[in-house]
Amino acid sequence: MESGLRAELMGEVDEVWSETLRHLPLSSGQQDPTREKVEFVAVVRTGDREAERVSFGRGSTSRSSIMAAGGYLRIDRLAYPDLQLRKGDKLVALERENEPAFEVLSVDDRSHLRLICELGDA
Asked: What's the CA gap between 97 and 117, in Å, rounded?
């Protein structure tokens, strides 16, 4: 994909889906003094769509359920080149009701466009 088109598409997606988050850097469960608390804007999608289980048929004992915990965070690396997220860090979704917190379960830094983090309940 052409880089100009890619940047335009990312900008449009971010404009619609981004929200403000507070990064709480931790090390061994304690505040990490080497990294600052930062507020930033990024795309957070919660709910694990693969965990949806719907079963129809006779004798089925399972019920439909949707796992709403966790999700994925996608950060524009050009907008936040110095942001360092690590496994175990916490994030607070400041624009959501009750400001839910998430734990960073994994960080994928292989993309030059986005830093992608898997999130779980904190």
From this structure: 22
